[in-house]
Amino acid sequence: MGNTISYNEKPFDLDLGDKGVIRGLQLDEKSRRYAGIPYALPPTGEHRWRKPRPLPPGYTYGSDAGGPLDATKFRAVCPQKAFHVGKAEGGDGAYSEDCLFVNIWTPVGDERQSKWPVMLWLHGGWFQMGDPSQEPGMDPTELISTGGLNAIVVAIGYRLNIFGFLAGQDLVEESGGVSGGNFGLWDQRMAAEWVKENISLFGGDPENITLAGRSAGAYSVEAQMLHEFRRPSQGAPLFRRIFMDSNAIPAQPKSLENAQTQFNELCRHFRIQESWPADKKLAALRKLGVQELIEVIPKLTHHTFRPVTDDLFIHSGMMDYLQSKEFADEFQARGYKILIGEVANEETLYSTYNSPEEPTLESLRTQVMNYYAPEVTDRAIDCYPLPTSNDLAVWKKLFGNTLP
């Protein structure tokens, strides 16, 4: 994907029947885009660190004035630290917890007659940063307009970092066992369900959906597939194929007990007592402002918020299941297809961010343990000879090699 051509944009209204009207952009004679379409209610206020809520029955898309929903501009993305959001056509780069939107690119045609294949796209960024608005290098417009792609691309916005992946036993207790983390993965799941139900209104084929992602998006694709496989069959699957570019789940994610260490450190920073009951801790954390939470992240020893083994979305024994005949049989029975790819110099980006601060084993282990459980961290580090040099750059490169 990639976009280097400028387009003569003009508004285009799409009638969704009893679901309202949305106003997108016709970019040229071959492509259209609808930006910032809600797929869930905002995860704000008391709904921070809770599973996403579906749009209510009878929900219609439109403006407060009774006109169409303005889908001509990209909407806010999940708050994140020190990351510039590049957009193909400008955009305001705003951040907000109200970020559960999809952006849809379609060919031009009769939506009532067309049945275009659909690709759901999950952006990357370590689960810490990223943007579904698609920077110029990933914008699919040119593929549709000049490449002849007769397919719909849907980019999903989901919660990230502390907002999407704070986890721990306190969250399990406070939710009554409904959730303990992985909120960003639950967001992705709800978006996929929304697409399955609604994409035919845009000319898409709900029975021909591919789930694709890069980096953290590829990790998410695998997690979504495994979650789907562990659920009882409920008719047609949400997707038929998966594309994973530049990542996979390399080891069993941290347990809730592992994640509790990070949760406790966060509470200590804001003087929230460990002895408090779970609901009191979460109430105090929910009162904090977005900027307070974003600014605390780099101050934490455990600064990277990622998916965890909660036995709700990600199950224990996942790696054993992946290597089992049971998984192979399920994959074949569902008729799935998979495409997996890596990228050159995979370690480069990892070695740049949150890498060891000192040329020591202790510093290396601390940073690797932001991603993996302690026992996995030790096994990963043991795969490489430790540097004899005190050159920090050498240790940073080792960190990058250890992570992917």
TrEMBL record:
Keywords: Hydrolase. Pfam families: COesterase. One of its GO terms (molecular function) is hydrolase activity. It comes from the Eukaryota. The keyword Hydrolase applies. Residues 20-371 form the Carboxylesterase type B domain. Its EC number is 3.1.1.-. InterPro entries: AB_hydrolase_fold, CarbesteraseB, Carboxylesterase_B_AS, Carboxylesterase_B_CS. It is an enzyme of class 3 (hydrolase). Belongs to the type-B carboxylesterase/lipase family. This is Carboxylic ester hydrolase. It comes from Fusarium falciforme.
